[in-house]
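Hey, resending since the last one bounced:
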Amino acid sequence: QAEDGIRDLVRSRGLGDVYKRQEKYQWEALKYCESTGNYQAVSPTGNYRGAYQFSVETWDWIAGLYYGNLVGVDPAAARPQDQDRMAESLYLLRGRGQWPVCGRYLP
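The structure tokens again:
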């Protein structure tokens, strides 16, 4: 399962379990800041989509690495649990800087 692969990657890098390192409230604050928690949100320009305001390019990049079945899926149309996993995966690879304003809610 892809989620197990992410956890293995995290452990192999000595980062610990993402679910323990970031409290749920921190992810909720990020979501609220990005999209008021709306998983179907689309930015005014249409370039950023979903609760975590993914660009399609970034979404497809992360999906291609870990969740092949999500490549080509519109982030705003993806299931909430898929959006959550994709955001956590992006965070593990690139840190909170992927959300230039709202990333301040993550460690």
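Helices lie at 2-12, 18-21, 24-35, 56-66, 80-94.

Sorry for the duplicate.
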